[in-house]
Amino acid sequence: MKPSEFFNTDNPLTPGQIGFFEDNGYLLLKNYLTPNICRELRDQANRLIAEFEPDSAISIFSTKNQTDTSDSYFLQSGDKIRFFFEEDAFSPDGKLKQSKAKSINKIGHALHDLNPLFREFSYHPQFAEILTALGVQSPLLAQSMYIFKQPGIGGEVSCHQDSTFLYTDPLSVIGLWFALEDATVENGCLWAIPGAHQSGLKSRFLRITGEKTNFEIYDKSEWSSDELVPLEASQGTLVLLHGSLPHYSKANFSSQSRHAYTIHVIDGVCSYPENNWLQRPQEMPFRGF
Ligand code: FE2
């Protein structure tokens, strides 16, 4: 597949779109990806799962109990392709309740460097143009995730700011979230609090000694959930998310999956602390476009 087949448009962001992002902390670009690349990325993710042989290193993803689930499999995944199960995928005897393909919460966190199709897609120069327009001086791809939001068991992702997990000084994270299937209120679309990216970072997720983690709290107040608005996104939509924007997604109790691919970009002119959970070995640093 040629890179030009990825996109329905190569129009730069308009001043109005940039202004909307700055005011609200997010921006939806509908019909941005072609149906073809959405299908190619979905097929690739499904192939990766088919080839994945779960062993004793079963890891469950949860943002509700992140410090409990931060095992070494998770903490060492910054430079790997690893597979994380849904919390509700297992019956009490520890066996999967449904097929492996329907049990995975997400794949992370270096698909963009290690898988040829995801690499070709993620490093497309068109994204660098968008990021430059949003003020990123030296965009570097820090992590990628393929999120399945499985029908029936796709778990809630509690309200958070991405800069909590990918902190830089000064803050710089921007998320690019691609709807590879329709994301609706029924199947667990993103929700966000418009404008709340301007109210500061509430916490940081820190790697402390060895493989322990902890949250450092700066603001104990809860997000006001009645201010959350749904960001429904039809297949092919690119959702841009400011790193300080509080966002979450509900569990998916519907019969429709909600596949999404997301990459998180940091600005290389900002410092990236050694106590962020996600670290790269010296021989595999974050790369730019
Ligand atoms: Fe997030």
The string of secondary-structure elements, in order, is HEHHHEEHHHEEHEEEEEEEEE
Beta-strand segment tally: 14
User: Could you name the CATH topology?
Assistant: Jelly Rolls
Major pleated sheet: 8 strands, antiparallel
| Ligands and ions found | fe (ii) ion
CATH superfamily: q2cbj1_9rhob like domain
**Mean residue pLDDT:** 92
Task: Supply the helix-strand structural class.
Answer: alpha+beta
Total of DSSP H or I helical runs spanning 4+ residues: 8
Classified by CATH, the class is: Mainly Beta
Q: Can you lay out the helices and strands and say which pair or pack?
A:
Layout: H1 15-24, E1 26-29, H2 35-51, H3 66-69, H4 72-75, E2 81-85, E3 104-109, H5 111-114, H6 116-122, H7 125-133, E4 139-147, E5 157-160, H8 162-165, E6 174-179, E7 190-192, E8 203-208, E9 212-217, E10 229-231, E11 238-242, E12 247-249, E13 260-267, E14 287-288
Antiparallel strand pairs: 1-11, 2-3, 3-4, 4-13, 4-14, 5-12, 6-11, 6-13, 7-10, 7-12, 8-9
The structure holds fe (ii) ion (FE2).
The site of fe (ii) ion (FE2) has 3 residues, from loops.
Explain this structure.
- The chain is an alpha+beta fold and 289 residues long.
- The chain has one domain (3-281): q2cbj1_9rhob like domain (Jelly Rolls, Sandwich).
- Helices cover 20% and strands 24% of the residues.
- It has eight helices and 14 strands.
- The protein has helices spanning 15-24, 35-51, 66-69, 72-75, 111-114, 116-122, 125-133, 162-165, and strands at 26-29, 81-85, 104-109, 139-147, 157-160, 174-179, 190-192, 203-208, 212-217, 229-231, 238-242, 247-249, 260-267, 287-288.
- The strands form three sheets. Strands 1, 2, 3, 4, 6, 11, 13 and 14 form an eight-stranded antiparallel beta sheet that branches. A four-stranded antiparallel beta sheet has the order 5-12-7-10, with no helix packed on it. It has a two-stranded antiparallel ribbon with strand order 8-9.
- β8 (203-208) and β9 (212-217) form a beta hairpin.
- The longest helix is centred in the first third of the chain and has 17 residues, at 35-51.
- The mean pLDDT is 92.
- The structure holds fe (ii) ion.
- Fe (ii) ion (FE2) is lined by residues 160, 162, 247.
